[in-house]
Amino acid sequence: MTAHSPDRVSGSVDLLEEAAGRISAHLNRRGTAELAALLDEIVSEHPSMALRLNLAEAIRSASPSGHEAAAEALEGFLLGTIQSWLRAAAAFAALVHEKDWKRVATYSRSGQVRECLASARHAGLEGVVLSECRPAGEGILMAQELRGEGLSITLTADAALPSLLPLVHALVVGVDACFGEAFANKVGTAALLREARSVGIPTVALTLPEKTLSELGTALWKNLPLNAPPKSGKATRGIVWSGQLFELVPWDLVTHPIC
């Protein structure tokens, strides 16, 4: 089985599509033979992404019934995710229109957030403020993608993003996994939500039912260490690099949860 280098810049929906493509190719080539090993690999690469955990669980449950059952489980999970995504995008666009939001802030890189912001252009959304999102810098990629959708973009450093919140109408964040009283997203999310609340800016968390973890998924979920900055080289030799990539954020920090 070919080893894959973990992707630390893509959002959970993009990573779901990558995993689904590998599973589909495997089923077409080999059926359910060694499928369990592939599912283990997919989970181990991104143990913090609920969509991949739940997809693997759905395929694993169906695979004892054979190749066709596993393929149907894959198709059903993807179809359900797409339908949930479309409903969430419609709800977000309706909220933008109702509140007359012209400019919002966001953090990190999320496929669902990206598509919701792009689809909200017809509802009146004009611009987005976001930060680099170090150490991987996925916020820069998100900025480029949103600019390609025709939105005006303001990019800043992570530490400066809270100071720019008074310039926007809302803060919009993604969700990588849903737990009972909290959700997981990139470290720094909770501080932004608290700052938004302190200055009276409404907050939105965009998620999907398929990101809610089962008891098994909760047991498998793992946090990840923050990567050292790219090209840090000799500058960080002998220095301990510490921190975790995700944090649990209480739902009560969110004004408008959209699922």
How do the strands and helices of this protein lay out in sequence?
Blueprint: H1 12-30, H2 35-45, H3 50-62, H4 67-99, E1 103-106, H5 111-119, E2 127-131, H6 138-148, E3 152-156, H7 161-164, E4 170-174, E5 177-178, E6 182-186, H8 189-198, E7 203-206, H9 215-220, E8 246-250, E9 256-258
Parallel strand pairs: 1-2, 1-4, 2-3, 4-7, 7-9
Antiparallel strand pairs: 5-6, 6-8
Helix pairs in contact: 1-2, 1-3, 1-4, 2-3, 3-4, 4-5
* Oligomeric state of shown chains: single chain
Which sequence of strands runs across the widest sheet?
3-2-1-4-7-9
Give me the CATH superfamily of the domain at 87-212 and 240-258: Translation initiation factor eif-2b, domain 2
Report the mean per-residue pLDDT as an integer: 92
Main structural class: alpha/beta
Radius of gyration: 19 Å
Could you provide a short overview of the structure?
It is built from nine helices and nine strands. By secondary structure, it is of the alpha/beta class. The chain is globular and about 55 Å long.
Describe this structure in words.
The chain has nine helices and nine strands. By secondary structure, the protein is of the alpha/beta class. The strands form two sheets. A six-stranded parallel sheet has the order 3-2-1-4-7-9, with helices on both faces. A three-stranded antiparallel sheet has the order 5-6-8, with no helix packed on it. The longest helix is centred in the first third of the chain and has 33 residues.
